[in-house]
Task: structure prediction
Amino acid sequence: MKNILVTGGAGFIGSNFIKYVLSNFDHKVINFDKLTYAGNLENLADIESDERYKFVKGDICEKKEVEKAVEENNIDTIVNFAAESHVDRSILGAKEFINTNVMGTHVLLEVLKEKKLEKYLQVSTDEVYGSLPEDKKELLFTEKTPVTTNSPYSASKASADLLCNAFYHTFNLPILITRCSNNYGPYQFPEKLIPLMIAKTLNGEKLPVYGDGKNVRDWLYVDDHCSAIMEVLNKGRIGEVYNIGGNNEWYNIDIVKLILKKLGKGEDMIQYVKDRPGHDRRYAIDSSKIMNELGWSPKYDFETGIETTVKWYLENESWWRKVMSGEYQKYFESNYANKLI
Ligand code: NAD
Ligand code: TYD
Result:
């Protein structure tokens, strides 16, 4: 039995991960989250009374807060999800991305070192590998692909990965890194492509597709990301990076059309808008290392995953309506104001 500090556990993937761990393992989970705009304790309402679960409000940039949570809860393992996670927001302002994603990770690594914890897993992203050419479908990101960052978000995540690597090599700390492709599923904040397009369709609003809609992403259902993280945590080789992906590449425009079809709406709702600056063209992951070495494979095919996701947003309208009010409106206006054409 482990005592896991899950940082950023009130966000999209973190909350799904906590539920995955509580359903499949007998571990204790301490959810350490600052509750930014993306953190929502409602995501955990169905497990909050589980005696193996506890929430602690805290900021990973504040060392004393992290130390206190680690000491008081006998933490032996940290899984770090806490981050600013949206590329468009990083273009509007990078500061919080550097603070949380880089400085915050550094704080966690210092605590790992000082408290001599058993394991640390950094949840990273395929975006640290930059962009693949769309005309060379045989090219995929492997763990050996050089880090090449094009957005302030990916630069901050790559910086954190490099710090993890340095702390592993210099101090011989028990650190693992996972780099996953785009996730989708219940509780994803509706600023990201799939939930944004579902919410806009249900609102009868135009769907803003950046550029020509031909950027490619490799989509993985969130539970498959969670199972991969647990495989790496339990069986991964210390100091290694493991890529995680669904072998499931889609043009953005085809995802948008699929959502419209599932919701019974026409393609006249699509509005092409000005492209995202520095927009990476294609992401595609080679997951052969985690599959061959650890025996992991995704359980959900895209058809099942997207069906479940659309159904969830239909059945949980009050959840997404609530998070799309307030601060969200200001973000939405500043992000899309100069894009709409
Ligand atoms: P999210 O934005 O939904 O959630 C982030 C969570 O971190 C929120 O609960 C927020 O309150 C918390 N947080 C932010 N700053 C904090 C701080 N300083 N201290 C403590 N908590 C803080 O993000 P997500 O989509 O769930 O992503 C989680 C992690 O997975 C991130 O590290 C992200 O880079 C990585 N990742 C995401 C994807 C994806 O498709 N969403 C893919 C690969 C990797
Ligand atoms: P996003 O969900 O922001 O993930 P990421 O940029 O981290 O991959 O975007 C996924 C793709 O969808 C990306 O190519 C940008 C595109 N996109 C749009 O076309 N319109 C939008 O309104 C958003 C948010 C994204």
User: Anything to note?
Assistant: The CA atoms of residues 257 and 267 lie 7 Å apart. Residues 87, 182, 192-193, 196, 208-210, 215, 217, 252, 276 surround thymidine-5'-diphosphate (ligand 2) (CB under 6 Å).
